[in-house]
Amino acid sequence: MSATIIDGRAMARRIQAAVAAEAAELARAGWAPRLVSLSVGATAAAELYVRNQRRQAAAAGIGFEARDYPATISAEELGGVIAGLNADPRVHGIVIQRPLPAAIPVRALQRAIHPLKDVEGLHPASIGNIVYDDLALGPCTARAAVEILRALPLDPAGLEVTVIGHSELVGKPVAFLLMGLGATVTVCHALSREVAAHARRADAVFVAVGRPGLVTAEMLKPGAALIDIGINRVETPEGPRLVGDADFETCAEVAGWITPVPGGVGPVTVAMLMQNAVRATRMQMERYRGAYAGGQ
Amino acid sequence: MSATIIDGRAMARRIQAAVAAEAAELARAGWAPRLVSLSVGATAAAELYVRNQRRQAAAAGIGFEARDYPATISAEELGGVIAGLNADPRVHGIVIQRPLPAAIPVRALQRAIHPLKDVEGLHPASIGNIVYDDLALGPCTARAAVEILRALPLDPAGLEVTVIGHSELVGKPVAFLLMGLGATVTVCHALSREVAAHARRADAVFVAVGRPGLVTAEMLKPGAALIDIGINRVETPEGPRLVGDADFETCAEVAGWITPVPGGVGPVTVAMLMQNAVRATRMQMERYRGAYAGGQ
């Protein structure tokens, strides 16, 4: 038995095509979507993200301005930058690239972004909305992982799903989104006693921990879907390499479907960011028209 | 084997004492906490809630004004009422009594309440904050159920917990709060295939569905904690009676701890509302001082 390898890049291209059409329509209405990315203290990981985002934005016809700040910038200065971007009608979305220097309180910055410009979907109000099944601007990585499941020939209603990792940026939002689809969801994490047993009885396993080789073939039910959200940089004799949280080679022999790393959840995540960008732009357009154009 | 019956009223009194001390301190600072309750179209259920809230508010030294509106009031008029209460510095919390007439969009009203006056903890921003483990104003019923678990001699870290019911007001928030404590959480609901199996392997079961007799003794692991959040009005030969979602008599023979209905989660929920009331008042006092008194 050998798993179907899910092509995240192809899926991202399909989403991108729809996003591009919507971006063009917004541009014709005078609302060409535009993102601003904030990086602090150049890191290789952040540069990789920025490059991928810039490429997908260009493909979708979305403006993308990447700003780099030195690692010495203060949280107050960054807060001022965000306040300026919140007030700037030519900016429709703000992306804070991770990792940030330890001295910068990333959560406070995320909260400072206006909810309508929160294209990463990480503001508490955005997270709260997905609990209410209101998916205006959901967190991109979690939405990407769940979109991949939805593209499989599995009915999410009543599906037994185990989520390994309960971070607030990924694991928890994945869990709520799955609950919203009617799945029976178990969330495991570092303190869980029986992760393997929970994984083995699941029809689908999501893993987002950041530990290479965490999920092995013995932890999977034959035919299960394995959505690997981890991205880890490991050193190999051939140089550095990106891998997920699953032991891909062995898991692919047991799973029914599996996402590769890279090329699985990652590209779909960037596509979700672009989808959020057009949604955010549309919401701002409607808010603006409601406020200034006689309630239209 | 016979379960320890958890005394929610005694627990509520303990919480209430701490709340009363804090309310008195706020009153001395010129910020006596005050709630306004909005009921629409008199219903027996809402009247019961209002009565309990009024009594606990009085015991805690919190002002409580109950307003009744006719069932014919429009959503726009109610929105106007809420806007007025948001702007009134003498009002620190707004409670919307359920049920509301079907024509009133309760969720939109909940969103209209200023997050700092959202003492029920149901605004999307409040819900999102608990995902981020920021418990400023959490939803009262979910917080009450989890407080009860925390009072038991069980370590929540690594605890296997099954939550039956995934409503956005109760089941989902219970799940996030438990995740925040390190529990391994499975959330089941109407579409789940194996609720009994999930319940039976759990160290603690939370049920919030609204169906009498849903949880039976056969669904429990001996010694497990059973937190029954359901409140159902059933007719008996002796007249109407309130029961939970568990078959109390048989479950009490298997469980290690069990909450009765009434007298379990209910009184603690009202105590949480009062705790939120003093927290909300304090946050508003600090916001006011920050804005108008030189950043103190």
Can you walk through the features of this model?
2 copies of one chain form a homodimer. By secondary structure, chain A is of the alpha/beta class. Chain A folds into 2 domains: 28-115, Leucine Dehydrogenase, chain A, domain 1 (Rossmann fold); 140-266, NAD(P)-binding Rossmann-like Domain (Rossmann fold). Chain A has helices spanning 8-28, 44-60, 75-87, 106-112, 124-131, 140-150, 171-180, 195-200, 248-254, 265-292, and strands spanning 4-5, 34-40, 63-69, 93-96, 160-164, 184-188, 204-207, 225-228, 232-236, 239-243, 257-258. The model of chain A has no long low-confidence stretch (mean pLDDT 92). Chains A and B meet through α5, α7 and β6 of A and α5, α7 and β6 of B. β6 of chain A pairs antiparallel with β6 (184-188) of chain B.
Which key terms come to mind for this protein?
alpha/beta; 10 helices; 6-stranded parallel β-sheet; Rossmann fold; 43% helix; 296 residues; homodimer; 3-stranded parallel β-sheet
Which fold name corresponds to the CATH topology of the largest domain in chain A? Rossmann fold
Query: In CATH, what is the homologous superfamily of the largest domain in chain A?
Result: NAD(P)-binding Rossmann-like Domain
What is the distance, rounded to the nearest whole angstrom, between the alpha carbons of the first and last residues of chain A?
Answer: 57 Å
Beta content of chain A: 15-25%
In which order are the strands of the major sheet of chain A placed?
1-11-8-7-5-6
Q: What is the gyration radius of chain A calculated from CA atoms?
A: 19 Å
Label the overall shape of chain A: globular
Overall structural class of chain A, as computed from helix and strand content, comes to alpha/beta
| Total separate domains of chain A | 2
What profile does the largest beta sheet of chain A have?
A: 6 strands, parallel
Which chain pair has the greatest contact?
A-B, 34 and 34 residues
Q: What oligomeric state do these chains adopt?
A: homodimer
